[in-house]
Write a structure and sequence with these properties.
3-stranded antiparallel sheet; single chain; alpha+beta; 16% strand
Length: 79
């Protein structure tokens, strides 16, 4: 299991990084139509916010980059 915390303090627990991405996507007040659309919009927001470059080629890479940039705090990861 993977546990992360968002900047607003919400904790997410999921089996995979992909599942974390899906939960983040669904947390948006008005979610984009697809996960891929959400990743593109999230990457654009991160770029505008602090210059971070988040990949949009896969949900796993996107979440890993969010953790590396400090947009998510990794609380635990167990296999």
């Amino acid at each position: 299991m993977i546990r992360v915390k968002t900047p607003n303090g919400k904790e997410i627990e999921a089996a995979t990084l992909h599942d974390v991405a899906v939960q983040l996507w669904q947390m948006v007040m008005v979610p984009e139509p697809t996960l891929e659309d959400w990743m593109r919009e999230n990457a654009a927001r991160a770029q505008a916010w602090d210059g971070s470059v988040l990949p949009v080629d896969s949900p796993d890479a996107h979440v890993r980059a969010m953790i590396a940039c400090g947009h998510l705090e990794l609380l635990s990861r167990t296999i």
